[in-house]
Structure formats: C-alpha cells, structure tokens
Amino acid sequence: MNLQPLTAVSSVDGRYRAVTDRLAPFLSEFGLIRARVQVECEYLMALSEEKKVGIRALSLDEKSSLRSLVTNFTEEDAALVKKIEREGHENIPATNHDVKAVEYFLKLKLADTSLADVREWIHFALTSEDVNSVAYGIVLRDVLEQVMLPSLGGTESALMHMSETYAETPMLARTHGQSATPTTFGKEMRIFLTRLRKQVDAWKVHPILVKFGGATGNWNAHTVAVPDVDWRVFSRAFIERFNEEGKKQAHYVPLELNDTTTQIEPHDTYAELFDAMRRTNTVLIDFAQDMWRYISDGWVTQKPKEGEIGSSAMPHKVNPIDFENAEGNLGVANALFNHFSNKLPISRLQRDLSDSTVERVFGTAFAHSLIAYTSLEKGLGKLSVNTVALQAALDEHPEVLAEAFQTVLRREGVEVPYEKLKALTRGKKVTLEDFAEFIDGLEVSSEIKNRLKQLRPENYTGLSVKIAKP
C-alpha cells in the first residue's frame, strides 16, 4: 500500500498527521540528512579558515554556495542520498552507510563547481558519529526552539488566564477524595502553571553536548595529519558556529562540545532533556486528570462543538475527550522518554550501535507530546467554570470549617478542641446551625464566638487569592 495518513502504521503519521506535520522538517529522516549536510558543509568551510590545515581559502561565493546546499535542500536531494546508500548512483557504489552516502552526495554536488578541488576535504578525519552527534544536536535544538516550546504557550496562557480570572472563586478542596479545607479555582490553576513553567525551564538549563573528536574521541587522525592545529580549540569554535542562528530564537537551547568522549557522546544531556520533558508531561497528566474530574463533577463545563457526537448511543454526552486524549498520548511519550534516558547513556566499551536505532524514535516521542499539548490547548478553549456548582458543593460541606474552629480554640486555650470537633463532625452530616450551637456552648469571648460564626466555606480560603495572583 502506498504510504498516506490512512495507511500509516503509526498514528502520529496517520490520524494525527495534521498535528505532527510540524515536526517533519526536523525529526524525519529528511531532517536528519539535511542536518548532516549542514555539518559537513560547515566543517569544510571551517577547515578552509584554519590556515594550518592546508586547504585553500574559500571565497564568499563558494561559502554561500555550500550554505545554499542546506537552505535549498529538497526531498529529491534526500532521496538521492538514500539511493546512494541503498543501491549506489552512477559511478558511486552502494554504501550501506547513511553518513558515507552524505559524503558522496556532496562530492557529487561539487564535482562541476569551483569547489571540485577541495572535495576530498569533505569528512576529513571524521567518524560518522561526529557528524551524527552534531546533526542530532541541531535537530533537537531546532525542534525544541521552533515547535515544542512554542506549542506549550497556549496551555500556559490558558492557565494564566484561569488563575487570574478565578483567583477569588471559592472551591471545595478534596484530599483523599474527601471534602477538605476550601481553596479557589484560580489558585489550583496557578499551581499547575508554576509547575509547568519550572519543568519547561529545565529544558533550557543545560546545553546539548555533542562530540567531534574522531574515531574514539581522541582526534587521532587529525593530529597525525595536521599536528600544528589545536583540534580541541578548533572543534569548540566549530560547534559554536551552530549557535549563532539559535541565539535569535525566543527559546534558546545551545550546543556545546564535549571533548571527553568515546566514539560517541555519552548522551547524558539527552537524558537530562528527556527527563525534563517527561516531568513536564507528568505535570500535564496530573492536570488532565484533575480537569477530567472537575468536568465529571460539573464544576467545569465544556462548550459543545456543533455537529460533534459524544456517544454513539447517548445523545446528551459531551465527553472530556481532549483531556483523555492528552493523558493517553503523554503516557506513551513518557514511556519512550524513560527508555531514552535509561538506554542512551549506556554504550559498550568505546561504542556499540544500539543507540542509533533508538535515536530514530525521537520523533515518535516528540509527536505524542505535541499531540497532547495540542489537545490540552483545544480542551482548555472549550471550558468555563460553573461558579454555581462550586458554591453548591461548598454549601454541602460546612464540616470543612472544623479545622478553622479547632485551630482557633487551641489558641484560646480550650481543652482538647480537636477531639471536640471530631466528635461533632466525623462521619456525620453537620450544618452551620450545628456549628452555631456548638460555638454558643464554648467558654470563649463573645468576640471569638462572633468571628467563628461569620466563617463560611466560601470565605475560608486563606491566602488562596494572593497565591493565585502573586
């Protein structure tokens, strides 16, 4: 069957392709091949700028020509690279090696240009993992800056709006699923906003480390061929070239050389990144489940979408499908992120190839996360808070005032106040009138009695408003 959304094996390329299409320029094989081309072209230019290497200086036009191979890289170009890898092309035999195919592709592209004489400097002294490490760094950096971080903006904005709009809207809290000390809806939204921001900030705390040190990370071939160059200094400066464009982005994730590696960069910063993304997703799973419950209780209502069917059997249904969709996709993404973090930092001796196939699954984890972020934003756009239902729930549970009463009575020196309130309320249906009668029987000042009688669940919200609107 021809590949199209209806025949795709994975839902991220099938049912959800309209959402995940934004990831394709980065996390597809096309995106990876283009990044490899970028690394090889920039390396050729960097070599030409180091006089001690021995390659002639390139003109500005020649450098522009090399960069145009990246900016104008097409699907046809990527297909040619794959053809060279699988079956060869013209006088080029099949490489059965993806990075070597990129080298031959570039030599083919430069054959009839003024750069023909420097073609053998392409991939000079490198191992394929030098190119791959930097290419994956570019891909991850770009997709974070341009897709993933911006995609959380809608959820963050919605949480900010709700925390401020409903800062003073009282709400019954639940601990262990039971009625508990009141809060405000806005304050509960502020909690998720704060948690989300903290975890997302962790995406940008550490740079993505890459390697560029040759076959086993020692610059062996480099130093034999050109001993007068400080190759570690050269490599640091080379990697910094890829940060210039990134610094222009609103969300900046830098690349940095790791000069102490085996054949591969140990991927510890990958694990840090994926752990941060997994924690972000866990916060959002928690949020999605809470919103599901608020919707179930009628405290939050959803605006029906014209023509949408909630149930094939029950016409009245307006299901919280966006929050359920987000929860499921976040769980799948987290399973993958967890595997990435556990597996990628482990490589036998100076390298094994088990990381390569795992890296090719990055797009799947990012895609399920992006689907979830999109669903959350969509779901939040349908919501309104049912303040009448919130107040009704508070009215049903005046027993939550028992905490306030026993705490005030402790300060007033009343004996065993906790036990007295426990006897009054635990396992019983109490009313405000029951509390008033209890208060009248206390040996405390009339001022304290009046103060306690004025308490209502809706005004017993502590510092919730200030927390919601710091």
Question: According to CATH, what is the topology of the largest domain?
Answer: Fumarase C, Chain A, domain 2
Tell me about the biggest sheet?
2 strands, antiparallel
Structural class by helix and strand composition: mainly alpha
Radius of gyration: 30 Å
Walk me through what this model shows.
- A hairpin with a 2-residue loop joins strand 1 (170-175) and strand 2.
- This protein is elongated.
- The strands form 3 sheets. A two-stranded antiparallel ribbon has the order 1-2. A two-stranded parallel sheet has the order 3-4. The chain has a two-stranded antiparallel ribbon with strand order 5-6.
- The protein is mainly alpha-helical and 470 residues long.
- Helix content is 57%, strand content 5%.
- The chain folds into 3 domains: 20-124, Fumarase C, Chain B, domain 1 (Orthogonal Bundle); 130-173 and 188-305 and 316-387, Fumarase/aspartase (Central domain) (Fumarase C, Chain A, domain 2), CATH 1.20.200.10; 397-468, Ribonucleotide Reductase Protein R1, domain 1 (Orthogonal Bundle).
- Helix 3 (29-49) crosses helix 6.
- It has helices at residues 17-20, 24-27, 29-49, 60-71, 75-86, 98-110, 128-151, 153-165, 185-203, 220-225, 231-240, 243-246, 268-297, 321-343, 354-359, 362-380, 387-395, 402-411, 417-425, 432-440, 446-453, 464-468, and strands at residues 170-175, 178-184, 208-210, 255-257, 300-302, 383-385.
- The protein is built from 22 helices and 6 strands.
